[in-house]
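Extended Data, panel c. Modelled sequence:
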Amino acid sequence: MAMPCSLLIDFKMAGHVLFLAFGSNLGDREKNIYGAYDKIEKRIGQIVSKSAFYTTTPVGFSSENLFFNSVCEVATNMDVHEIFETLKKIEMELGRSSKSCGRVYADRPIDIDILMYDDDVIDEPSLTIPHPRFHLRKFVLEPFAEIAPDIIHPILHKTVGELNKEAG
């Protein structure tokens, strides 16, 4: 099980604060997420904190394979669109064949979602930030609240900790 960790970093030097959610329910789930962490550190930025792994049942589809979920905070200088493209490549490299289409979900070795990028609000056909459903997903809110309970959702104007409590 991953243990929470926190590093000191100069955020003025980093430029942007990025929160990512991870899910894996195929193969070596822990190895899949650690592999994603490694690639993110090499290509996107420094991981500042990581939640523990949470074991959860699939949401939105039926499967006997339980998920490992986690959230991490990344300090980066990259533009969010470049991050999005890089994350898609990382998922493919780690065995993800395709993203869900039309909200049809399936088992996957890795899923990486951008939860927040600074306090930006982006609503484009291919990219929505903050993630449009993270505030409804306990499997995201619990690990997010573990590492950043005081972060404020830029649309809902509530902290991640408050959203987690409201989700039950």
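The radius of gyration is 15 Å. This feature is highlighted in the accompanying rendering.
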